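The material for today's practical consists of a large collection of protein records. An example says more than a description, so a record of this kind follows:
***
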Amino acid sequence: MGPLAGLKVIELAHIMAGPTCGMMLADMGADVIKIEKVPDGDDSRQMVPPHINGESAAFVMMNRNKRGIAVNLKTRGGRAVLSRLVENADVLIENYRKGTLDKLGLGYERMFKLNPGLIHCAISGFGRTGPYAERGGFDLIAQGMSGLMSITGEGPGRQPVKCGAPMTDITAGIIGAMAVLAAYTHRLKTGKGQQIDTSLFEAGIIHTYWQSAIGFATGVAPQALGSAHPLNAPYQAFQTRDGWITVGAANQKNWVRLTEALEQSSLQSDPRFFSNDARMRNISMLQEILSKIFLTRTTEDWLTRLERASVPAGPILDILQMHQDPQTLARGMVQSVQHSRIGVTRTLGHPVQFSKTPAAVKRGAPLYGEHTRVVLDEHGFSEAEVELLIQEQAIVCLD
């Protein structure tokens, strides 16, 4: 059933950060009811191509394990639906701009009056306070303003590069889920809910722990280093005869092991590379020497040698190769799930293993309005009331 079985969550969120938060909770057993806007639903439904039998692959990925209803919050009936759901919920997740729900009469103060135990998780571009609180935000903007793009790329003076994954969106969702669980622990002790406020901007900032430490200590802004590490060497990618590998010989013990695996023990006594401090001061020379050595053998050969020497190393896999990797499969990170329209489809698994209450992927992403009728029935709406809501265009029911 998962460790959060029985937790009732309303997800009033779209695209990435909020849905990531909801997905994490749903994987751990929470009953997550996703409320989509009328008429078009979550914007990720329009993120095509690619699609699978007419369903957006992006939406299908981010919304497994959830039930979905379609509600028009601009109508009186739609607002009544949300209010009824909130009365019986434990958590509300939303990622609207500041003030959006307040204008509809559905802000935190109103929700708290309906349900004093409600945990209201608000995820936005820049948070609910500060000079940027009114701004909208996207992952690209947050990556740039948080400093991430200044430390990502091939090196100083090169074009700024965004991390390939929507780093701040996903991280903000995970932080939101963490905060929900902390607030839920507080509520179990006190019976009181609270508002949680986090942002893509802060989610990006926390990825700069190492670089911020350097900046605080030196007063100099760290720059991009390609795949290298700002504090340890060698810790980066190297090209082999037929591909690329990553090598993590970041501490002294692994540095010694690496020199032996490379059959270059003389590097141990070279004053330029004797310690990590020396290696960092002479990193360009170190990279040049090691790059020439790694080009002499194949990826498979080097990985075999490095594993034998207990030096952390690995191949650089593309996404499809990662999906097929035996460790990915052994950890259950590729799952199959039944979808109402697509049939059996693949998705990513939950990243935490629980010994007593395992997380699980049990349900495919909902069709638009798929569960509207059943959810409203669970919350006391009569059949006649549902029909009136449909006539008002306050809700959309699939059936």
